[in-house]
Amino acid sequence: MVMLTREICFRHVHSLIRLPFPGSALFRFDAGSGAFALGELTEFLQSDWVAGSVAAARAISSHAPSSLRHFSIQFMAENVAFHVLADDVVLLDERHVSG
């Protein structure tokens, strides 16, 4: 059996939420037309979480984060979803796992 691994690296993470999946959402978001797929990394183009975080940061500082993006991925076998607010994400190449 061939096993592959792939790393997801988020840059300048502002917030991370781990939720049971399936489960209830804490915020509203829009993945865009046809962009959302379970088990795949998704960027939400319209997100209440981003809007609220930017507004909260502006309320306490003149240096509000300007490039926050909302990403999510679900790990179906573990029944868990991660939501991440970060400046950027990089998907590294797949690698073979020996074992």
Jot down its keywords:
99 residues; 45% strand; two-stranded antiparallel sheet; four-stranded antiparallel beta sheet; mainly beta; 8 strands
Describe the structure.
With 99 residues, the protein is mainly beta. The protein is built from 1 helix and 8 strands; from the N terminus they run βββββαβββ. A 4-stranded antiparallel β-sheet has the order 2-7-6-4, with no helix packed on it. A hairpin with a 4-residue loop joins strand 6 and strand 7. The longest helix is centred in the middle third of the chain and has 13 residues, at 48-60. The radius of gyration is 15 Å and the shape is globular. It starts with a strand and ends with a strand. The mean pLDDT is 83.
Q: Rg from C-alpha positions?
A: 15 Å
Major sheet: order of its strands? 2-7-6-4
* Number of helices in the DSSP assignment: 1
Residues in β-strands, percent: over 45%
Concise description?
With 99 residues, the protein is mainly beta.
Indicate the topology:
Elements: E1 3-5, E2 8-20, E3 29-30, E4 42-44, E5 46-47, H1 48-60, E6 69-75, E7 80-91, E8 95-97
Antiparallel strand pairs: 1-8, 2-7, 3-5, 4-6, 6-7
